[in-house]
UniProtKB/TrEMBL annotation:
This is SDR family oxidoreductase. Keywords: Oxidoreductase. The lineage of its organism: Bacteria, Pseudomonadati, Pseudomonadota, Alphaproteobacteria, Sphingomonadales. InterPro entries: NAD(P)-bd_dom_sf, SDR_fam. The keyword Nucleus does not apply. Coiled coil: none annotated. Belongs to the short-chain dehydrogenases/reductases (SDR) family. It comes from the Bacteria.
Length: 243
C-alpha cells in the first residue's frame, strides 16, 4: 500500500493504537488523530490533535495530510462512551454522543469525498458496536449514536459508490475492561461467549485488512463478538452477575 495514506481517529490508545500500528506495518502512511496534545501515538504515525465535538474537526485532521500521498482509508474509530439510560436520560450526553460518534464521521466522510476524484479505491470503515445486533437500554445515548452511525454507513455507501468510495463497518464486542467493570466480570464475560473466547484488537485489524483487500465490498457490517449476541442478554455485560 505504498503511496497511500490512512486516517485513524482515536489513534492514540486501545484498539485505535493497534490499528495504527498494524497499518504502519502494512506500509501505509498513517495520520493518528488524538484528542489531547500530550496523547501519544505509535512511532511512525503523524499525530494530529482535534476535538471531534467541534465542527472544524475534519478540516483540522485533513490538514495533516498535506504533503502526504492521497488519503485512501478512513477509520472512524474514536467514540464517546458515557452513561445515561431511561430514568437518567441526559440531553447533554445525547448531544455530545451525536456530535462525536455521528457528526464527526459524517464530516470526515464528506471531507474525504471532496478530495477524491474517482481514481483508485477509497475505503471508509466505521467502528460500531456488536450490541446493535441485540440491543439493550444501557448507555442509551451511546447506543442511539451507534445506531445512527450504522445508518450513515449504509447511506454513505449508497451515495458514494459511483465515486469508488466504499463504506463499511465493523461491530466489535467487548475488547477491553470498561470503567466500573471488575476484572472478574470482564474475564467471565469473555469466557461465557459461545465461542469460549473474547474479542481481541487483532480481530479488528484482520477485518480491516480484509476490507482493504476486498474492493467489491461496500455497505456491509462485520460483527465480531464471538457469538455474544446469540445470548440475547438484557443488560450491558458489566451489570450481569458473574457466572
Amino acid at each position: 500500500m505504498e503511496g497511500r495514506t490512512a486516517i485513524v481517529t482515536g489513534g492514540g490508545k486501545r484498539v485505535g493504537a493497534e490499528i495504527v500500528a498494524a497499518l504502519l506495518v502494512d506500509g501505509w502512511h498513517v495520520i493518528a488523530h488524538v484528542h489531547h496534545e500530550d496523547d501519544k501515538v505509535p512511532d511512525g504515525a503523524v499525530k494530529v490533535v482535534a476535538d471531534l465535538a467541534e465542527c472544524d474537526c475534519a478540516d483540522r485532521i485533513f490538514a495533516a495530510a498535506q504533503g502526504l500521498p492521497p488519503v485512501r482509508l478512513l477509520v472512524n474509530n474514536a467514540a464517546r462512551f458515557a452513561w445515561d439510560g431511561f430514568g437518567e436520560f441526559s440531553p447533554s450526553e445525547f448531544d455530545a454522543h451525536m456530535a462525536v460518534n455521528v457528526r464527526a464521521p459524517a464530516l470526515l466522510i464528506e471531507r474525504l469525498a471532496a478530495s477524491h476524484f474517482g481514481t483508485g479505491d477509497v475505503l471508509v470503515v466505521n467502528l460500531l458496536d456488536a450490541k446493535l445486533v441485540a440491543p439493550n437500554p444501557d448507555y442509551l445515548s451511546y447506543t442511539l449514536s451507534k445506531q445512527a452511525l450504522a445508518g450513515l454507513t449504509e447511506i454513505a455507501a449508497r451515495g458514494l459508490a459511483a465515486r469508488r468510495i466504499r463504506v463499511n463497518a465493523i461491530a466489535p464486542g467487548l475488547m477491553f475492561q470498561s470503567s466500573g467493570q471488575s476484572a472478574e466480570n470482564f474475564e467471565a464475560m469473555h469466557a461465557s461467549n459461545p465461542l469460549g473466547r473474547g474479542v481481541e484488537p487483532h480481530d479488528i485489524v484482520a477485518a480491516i485488512r480484509y476490507l482493504v483487500a476486498a474492493p467489491s465490498v461496500t455497505g456491509e457490517t462485520i460483527v465480531i463478538d464471538s457469538g455474544h449476541s446469540f445470548l440475547g442478554r438484557e443488560r450491558d455485560v458489566q451489570f450481569l452477575e458473574t457466572p
